[in-house]
Design goal:
The protein is of the alpha/beta class. The chain has two domains: 151 residues, SPOUT methyltransferase, trefoil knot domain (Alpha/beta knot, 3-Layer(aba) Sandwich), CATH 3.40.1280.10; 58 residues, Trp Operon Repressor, Chain A (Orthogonal Bundle). The longest helix is centred in the C-terminal third of the chain and has 19 residues. Adenine binds next to strand 5.
Length: 225
């Protein structure tokens, strides 16, 4: 898989891909992540990429021309399965979206800034719009990092058995059950007996029960459908 990200702040996006699981996935050649500085595609003085909005009002808008030039250059090199615009008014990103996107070959993400991007970019180039939650970030970069992380950890070979994605929260529309590690008794706070029993069917049944309890308590909306 290959992820290309168009941004005015590439430095904000670098570090998530330079540590831990994402770095290992890249080093192993399981995914390529390429950051593109939108300013490199500006034809204006001072590499300007934004302008005042027509009709007046506060806030700058990213212009269509540099974005179009960048997308055109990238599309000349490969075909993209999705061109995703990160925006608070997009579809709320969830595990199902992550699962689906992890099956794609090439994904292009576009990070908004200021008041957003010229609507014509969204009308003519963007194939999917994603929000990571009902709050406004100062740009789409952190959202793009979140979505990339959720996708990349699902790629075959990225996680080992211990970190397997199959038992994650949401993977079966349930939150994950509680987990414990040594010591079995700390200050008199003990671990549920069943986990120490070595009886796997019982352990599995307990985990399932706990997952359902936890979901009912914290996220009953997940059990609705
Ligand atoms: N850009 C600004 N806020 C955002 C959000 N909540 N999700 C995705 N992109 C954003």
């Amino acid at each position: 898989m290959r992820i290309d990200i168009i941004t005015v702040l590439p430095e904000l996006l670098k570090s998530p891909f330079e540590a831990s699981i994402l770095k290992r996935a890249i080093d192993k050649g399981l995914v390529e992540v390429h950051l593109h500085n939108l300013r490199d595609y500006s034809t204006m003085n001072h590499k300007q990429v934004d302008d005042y909005q027509f009709g007046g009002g506060a806030g700058m808008v990213l212009m269509i021309e540099p974005i179009h030039r960048c997308i055109q250059k990238l599309q000349a090199e490969r075909t993209y399965d999705e061109i995703i615009y990160m925006t608070p008014d997009g579809k709320r990103f969830d595990q199902r979206d992550a699962n689906k996107l992890s099956l794609k070959g090439n994904i292009l993400m576009l990070c908004g800034h200021y008041k957003g991007i010229d609507q014509r970019v969204r009308d003519h180039f963007v194939t999917m719009e994603l929000s990571i939650g009902d709050y406004v970030l100062s740009g789409g970069e952190l959202a793009a990092a979140v979505v990339s992380d959720a996708i990349i950890r699902l790629l075959p070979g990225v996680l080992n058995d211990e970190t397997s994605a199959l038992t994650d929260s949401f993977q079966d529309d349930l939150l994950a059950p509680p987990v414990y590690t040594r010591p079995a008794d700390y200050n008199g706070w003990t671990v549920p007996e069943v986990l120490l029993s070595g009886h796997f069917p019982k352990i599995e049944a307990w985990r399932e029960e706990q997952a359902i309890l936890r979901t009912k308590e914290r996220r009953p909306d997940l059990l609705d459908d």
